[in-house]
Amino acid sequence: MTKLDFLYKLTNSKAALTKIVIIPGETNYFIYKQIEKKLKTPHFKCNIEEGFIKPDTYYLPIGMEKERVCKYLYENSLRWHKNISKKFLGVWNYRLYKQKLIIASIIQKEAANVKEMPIISAIIYNRLKKGMKLQMDGSLNYGKFSHSKVTSKRLKNDSSRYNTYKYKGLPPHPVCVVSKEAIKAAFFPAKVNYFYFVKCGKNHLFSVSYDKHLKNIRKCTK
Hints:
By secondary structure, the chain is mainly α. The protein folds into two domains: 3-86, no CATH class; 96-221, no CATH class. The chain is 45% helix and 10% strand. The chain contains eight helices and four strands. Strands 1-2 form a two-stranded antiparallel ribbon. It has a two-stranded antiparallel sheet with strand order 3-4. A hairpin with a 2-residue loop joins strand 3 and strand 4 (203-207). It is elongated. The N and C termini lie far apart (51 Å). The relative contact order is 0.15.
C-alpha cells in the first residue's frame, strides 16, 4: 500500500481497497472505464495525456474522490517518466521525451514480444528517415479503438492524424500506455535496415525489400 493510500484509509476508517491493473498497450478510454467500475465513480475521467499513465497495479479506496485519484495517478506517473527521461536523455525535457513516447506506443502495439521491440523501433525510424508513411495498424488502435481490428473500411474512413496509412510522420500523441521496455526501444532502436514486417504465427518476419516482404506474406499465408 502506498503512503497516500495508507493515510487515506487511516482517515477514512473501513475504507475498502480495490485493485486497478493498468497494462502496457491499454488506452485512457478503457483505463477510466475500469476505474469508474471499480471505484463506483460515474463518468470518471482525468485530464492526463494519453500514454502518460504508468502501467502498474494500484490499490485505491472505493469512493476515493476523482480529483485525488487523478492527482495520484499523475504524480506517480510523472516521477516514473522523469526517472526514465533522465536515464536515457540526461534531462527531463517533455517535448523531446514525448516524441519518444509516441514511438514507444506504436512499438507497444506492434511488437509481438519484448525481443522484437528494438527491431520494430528501427523500422519506424527507417521509414521516417526515408519519408515513407508508417502504415502501421497499431497507430489506429487509439482511444476506444484499442481492441478493434483495423479493417480496410476503417483505413478509408478514419481521417484522424492517427491514420498512418493516410498521413506521413508520427501521430500527434501516444496511442496507449507503454512499458519501460518499449520506451527503451524507442531510444535505442536495433541497428538493422529492415523496412517491412508481417505477423507469422506468434512472431514477425522482417525484410529489407518489398519483394521479400511479399514472399514472407505468401509463406505465412500457407
